[in-house]
Amino acid sequence: MHVRIINPNTTRAMTDLIGRSARVVAAPGTLVDAVQPTMGPASIESHYEEALAVPGILEQVALGEAEGVDAYVVACFGDPGVDAARELARGPVIGIAEAAMHAATLVGRRFAVVTTLGRTTGRARELVDRYGFRDAFVAVRACEVPVLALEDPGARTRLVDECRRAVQQDGADVVVLGCAGMAELCAVIADEIGVPVVDGVAAGTVLAQSLVALGLRSSVAGEYAPPPAKPMAGILAGFEIRAPVAVA
Ligand code: 2AL
Fold first, then answer.
1. Ramachandran quadrant class, 98 (left: phi over 0; alpha: psi -120 to 50; beta: rest)
2. Which atom of ligand 1 is nearest to the CA of 44?
3. What digits encode the pLDDT tens for the residues 140-195?
4. H-type alpha helices, 132-180
5. What's 2-96+203-239's CATH class?
6. Where in the chain is the domain with CATH 3.40.50.12500?
7. 180: CA distance to ligand 1 center in Å?
8. What are 69-120's pLDDT values in tens digits?
9. Phi, then psi, of 235 in degrees rounded to 5
10. Which fold has domain 97-199?
11. Phi, psi (deg, nearest 5) at residue 241
């Protein structure tokens, strides 16, 4: 089984970190690789960057389809482009926010999301609503560390402090990490704060692998049917769908 993790940003060190985190939980016999777009933002912490990351994500899905990839994980907490990727891919496509929220509600009753910058909290709330987790969600907190500074000295302390506040002040019994760049801090934070901490990269990898093992793929009966053939103009001409995607 081949599971491909797509880091939607173009920072190689973060793609490598995400790949390592996914491989830790992959089953023997599952090939996990991590890729990044050839174009797009160095990190995603605004709606602008999120929108501009999506073509690069879809490019990676198209390449993966040509290689026979069995499932994808989109490793950015805004779950950018996941619906569109489901229309292109034969196998399942999992966003790390959706995967992490599912996992959190299987091990606790009240989860908080702890993310990078305050400006990303709106997207996290939106996804909670969209995925139907409003009853279990208690808070979203920001540690105000930018994505590409998560490994800087002091960042971990700020993140741990915010996770602890989510437990002590918001009543969370599970913490969901709100950025793929936090993946390698998951175990250490869980040790420090004493409640389960969910990293969506790991949760998404295991979930993608499980869906393939179950023989489940995105339904083509409704919204996730392949996109119609249609001209595509300008810089996006390479994304044109020329013939309906054959669904095996
Ligand atoms: C993220 C993430 O997971 N990757 C990225 O570039 N930005 N999320 C976030 N909340 O900042």
1. alpha
2. 6
3. 999 999 999 999 989 999 999 999 999 999 999 999 999 999 999 999 999 999 99
4. 155-168
5. alpha beta
6. 2-96+203-239, 97-199
7. 6
8. 999 999 999 999 999 999 999 999 999 999 999 999 999 999 999 999 999 9
9. -60, -20
10. Rossmann fold (3.40.50)
11. -90, 115
Task: From residue 131, give the alpha-carbon distance in Å to each of 30, 79, 108, 124.
Answer: 28, 11, 17, 11
200 lines ligand 1 (CB under 6 A): no
Q: Give the SS3 label for residue 63.
A: helix
User: Is-contact 67 22, C-beta < 8 A?
Assistant: no
Ligand 1 neighbourhood includes 58 CB (under 6 angstroms): no
b/e sequence 212-242, b meaning 16+ C-beta within 10 Å: beeeebbeeeeebebeeeeeeeeeeeeeebe
* Half-sphere exposure in the Cβ direction for 86 (13 Å, CA): 19
pTM of the model: 0.97
Whose tokens are 């969910």? That residue is: 198
Closest CA to 14 of 40, 51, 48: 40
Identify the residue whose C-alpha is closest to ligand 1 atom 10.
Answer: 179
User: How many other C-beta atoms can be found within 10 angstroms of the C-beta atom of residue 79?
Assistant: 26
Read off the tokens for 241.
């769908």
Q: Is 131 helix (H, G, I), strand (E, B) or coil?
A: helix
